[in-house]
Structures are given as structure tokens and as C-alpha cells.
Amino acid sequence: MGKYSRFQLDTDKLLELLESENLSLGDYALAVEMENSPSKSREEIVAWMEEVLNVMENASNKGREQPVHSVSGLTGGDAFLYQKHAESGSSILGKTASSAAARALSCGEWNASMQRVAACPTAGSCGIVPGVLLSLEETYNKTREETVKAMFSASAIGILIGSKATLAGAEGGCQAECGAAAAMAAAASVELLGGSQKAALHAAAMALKNLMGLVCDPVAGLVEIPCIKRNAGCTAIALLSADMALAGVTSRIPLGEVIDAMGQVGKDLPGRLKETAKGGIAVTPTALKLEETLKA
Amino acid sequence: MKKCGIFDIMGPIMVGPSSSHTAGAARLALVARKLSMMKQGPLSAVTFFLHGSFADTYKGHGTDKALLAGILGFNPDDPRLCESYRLAEEAGLKFSFQPKDLGEVHPNTVMFLLESSGKTMTVTGSSIGGGNVIITEIDGLETAFTGEKPLLITKHKDAPGVVSRITALLYQRQINIGNMRVKRSDDPEGAASMYLELDQPAGDDESLAGLAEAISEFPGVESALLAN
Fold it and tell me: How far apart are CA B125 and CA A173, in angstroms?
């Protein structure tokens, strides 16, 4: 068995390994993938990741360039509206945070209009990682190669969460989809901006802690309300978590334990709050009215 | 602890809105199409029996469009997915969607009733999240196939030695069997069926080349087909 045949899921041992081998989370994720896919070359794997990022970039632009509406007609046009606001200088957030949110809204709307997106880890959370990474790429003049590398960092966190807990809303609520994506984006941001592996793990932990207990309560069972705006909100949490980690702020509870807690909370959540549209926002009077109009 | 690789997390590239209700549905239909074409030739009609969450939310998630798209041979990221109704009609494919309680199955499950010039076949599968699928039934035989790996289907005489001869050939070619099911025919004189999901061999596809042909030459084997 090669050194990288199995992804190290114990986060303490993972950090030891990364530090002793001088590997970033992204380097490590790539090494494990290469070891487990002997028929694919490094170039092929990186090229595929770049293709994923290209699809994400397109989705993050389309909704900002012009209003995009969902097939159901329930949502749309918000990415366009917010982008105008961000461009005008009126945003109370800085350039990076507002453009990250606009990009995330765009991905969500593009998805809801049955267009091509890249699940990350799911279609419902497809705006968070691209929103954050593409905005940082823009603000800090990072190369595409560096951003693709950060995608590998993001996948390392995704692998940890998917293996130890879950990435499915039906099993863990929105914590598992948007929460996971935010943690992924936070760690990836740290590595993109040259932070340490330790800081990346802290960033992921802080992001996920901020989203503990987030329920999956989609109106009419569609991936629109509140999903699209949650993608926007989670970019802010990811960026803040990364920023704190880069400042040296640490999560008092280590990432591994936060992930385990998230998994347990997922099990504790009632079925009403896990992608059944039987609880939360999905059963508000307005939501039920909207659902009726769709059935008509 | 589930096994997760990079591309279980990043991607799939897909047509939205839902990895489970759109991409997963398209993938299920694509596998059903492959199996049907392998066994009974081009499709003339299909009935989609939708269970659970699929039955409740199929319009909004485009599950119906996705299922039709897969049946027509489109991948989950094919932009023509949105127009699959029109394209199905243009192709002359008869189809219908019906809700059906399929029992104790995953909430995102569909049973396909596939017709080809008088012959029929059923395939049942579930979309288990993130675009991943599992085929749980083929013509009444319980299975657990991912649809992502090569599938070998044989029809053979229900007698000792036939199965071991087939598996010996696989061993010889260093092909690992991930999952396999053998089923007797209800007719005592009838042929048995075997379904094997094969692990993709490392390196090239040469070990799979000519595999089905080689197996169909064995005594006792009526037919062998490989879906890749």
C-alpha cells in the first residue's frame, strides 16, 4: 500500500503528515487521487479540475450579466440586481465579499434555470466555492493555475466531511451541503492566499461551526428558496473564517471534532428539516401559497 | 465512513437544478437505456414509474426531462436535457410518467418499463445523492450496481462449471469482479442469467476487448454482452 493510498481522516494525524511532508491540503488531495487512479496522469486530473472551474466560472457570470430566472418562475434576477449594487460602489461590503456573493447568487440562479453547473459538493451549494475563489482570484490577481490548486484544497475538506459525516441534505440538512461548501471554501482561501495548513484547517472549522444546525427546508421542494441566498450568505462566512485564520485566530474546537458534531447534529435533526419540505421556511404561509401556485 | 474521492466532491458537471433529482435521474435513465439496448435492441416505448420524492417533486426538479434525456442517450451535463420532451417526440419514442408506490425503497427511485418491438424489460434504480445512482433490479433480479463500471451480462445453461469458466477467464485477464448476481430462469429448461459489475482494470481497456465474444464461445453460454 502506497503512502497516499488512503486519505488520512484523523485531522491531527493529517496535519502532522502535511507538516512533515511539507504538503498543502491541495497537494495531498492530488497525491491521494493520483495513487488511487493509476490510469489517470497528474495532467489529466488537473485538467479535469480546471474544466470544473470553467463550468463554475460560466455559471457565476451568466446570472450577473443579465437576469436569469428559474424554470418554476419562483426566483431569479437577484444576482443581476446585486451585481449592479456591488459595481456602483454602494455596497457596504468590500469588493471581494460583494462580488463573491453576487457570483454565488448567479450560480444558484443558473442552476435553478436548468443550466450547466458543477456540483460542489452538490448542486444546491454550487455557488459557494466558485464565488469565494473566483473573487479572491480577481482581487489578488492570482493565476488560474493557483486557483485550480485551491480547488484541490477545497476537495480535501470535502473528502473529510463526506467520509466522516455526510454531504447530503437529506441526511444532514443544509449543514452538510452549504456548511460543507463554506468549510471547503474557507480552507481553500487560506491556501490560495499562502496561509499554512494549520490555518486552513482552523478556517474550515470556524466556517462549519458558524453553520451548525442549518436545516434543509426548501420551499416547494425546489432548489431555490432559501437555497440560492444561502449560497450568498455562506460566501461571507467562508471569507470571514479564512480572514480570521490568516490573522492567527484559531478554532478552539478542532476540525475533526466539529465535523463529527455536525454529523451527529444531522442525525439529531428531525426528518421535517432534512430536504422533505415539511418544516422550516418550506411551511410558512407564503411558501405554501407559492407551492399552490406551482401546482395549478 | 464512506469512501470519497476528489471527483465525488468536485462535480459532477451537470444540468441543474438537483444532483439527486436531475443529474442522478438522467444517469439512471442512461444506464437503463444501455441495458435495454444490450438485451433487446432499440427502444420503442418506455413507462417511468416514479416513487416517493421523485413522484412528488418531479416537475419542479425536471426529473421527467432528465429521465427522458437519459433514455435518449444524453449525459447528465448535456444542455439538450431541457428539450428532451420535444426531442423524444421527434425521435418517435412513446413514453409516459406514472407515480407508483414501489415499496420499501429509497425515496428517489424509478422503475423503467422498457419496450422494444414486442419485448419488454424492467430496470429499477435509485438516485442516492450527489449524482450517484444504484441499479437495484433488472428483470426481477435484485442487483446493486453503480452503473459506473463495465457490466457483463451472460445467459447460460444452468449447470455446474459454466459460471466458473467465465470467472476463470476474468481472473486470467486480471479483471476484478466488484459485484455479481446469478439467477435461475423460472422455466426449468431455461437459461440462467448472470450479471457481473467489473472493476475498471488499471491501464488500458485491452483486457475488456473481445471479452464478451470470448465468453459467448464457451460451451453452455447462450450469449454474453458487455456494456461499458
Answer: 24
Q: Using one digit for the tens of pLDDT, what is the confidence trace for B29-52?
A: 999 999 999 888 899 999 999 998
Using DSSP, state whether B224 is helix, strand or coil.
strand
Name the residue type at position A73. Answer: G
**DSSP conformation class of B1:** -
| Nearest chain B CA: its distance from A160 CA (Å) | 8
Peptide bond into A121 cis (omega under 30): yes
CA dihedral A107, A202, A211, A270 (to 10 degrees): 120
pLDDT tens digit sequence for B209-221? 788 888 888 888 8
- Picking from A155, A258, A166, the residue whose alpha carbon sits closest to that of residue A208 is A258
d(CA A145, CA B59): 40
Chain A residues in contact with B199 (beta carbon < 8 A): none
Find, among B174, B151, B153, the residue nearest to B221 by Cα: B153
Please judge whether B17 and A71 are an interchain contact, meaning their C-beta atoms are less than 8 angstroms apart: yes
What is the residue type of B78? Answer: D
Q: From CA A164, how far away is CA A158, in angstroms rounded?
A: 10
Provide the ipTM: 0.94
What is the end-to-end Cα distance of chain A in Å, rounded?
59
CA of A64 to nearest chain B CA: how many angstroms apart?
18
Which of A110, A118, A221 has the CB atom closest to B56's CB atom?
A221
Q: Which chain A residues touch B200 with a CB distance below 8 Å?
A: 39
Q: Provide the β-strand partners of residue A274.
A: A216
**3-class DSSP assignment, residue B199:** coil
Query: Cα separation of A227 and B98, whole Å?
Result: 29
Q: How far apart are CA A112 and CA A68, in angstroms?
A: 9
| Closest residue in chain A to residue B78, using alpha carbons only | A116
A163/B3 touch (CB, cutoff 8 Å), yes or no: yes
**pTM of the full predicted structure?**
0.87
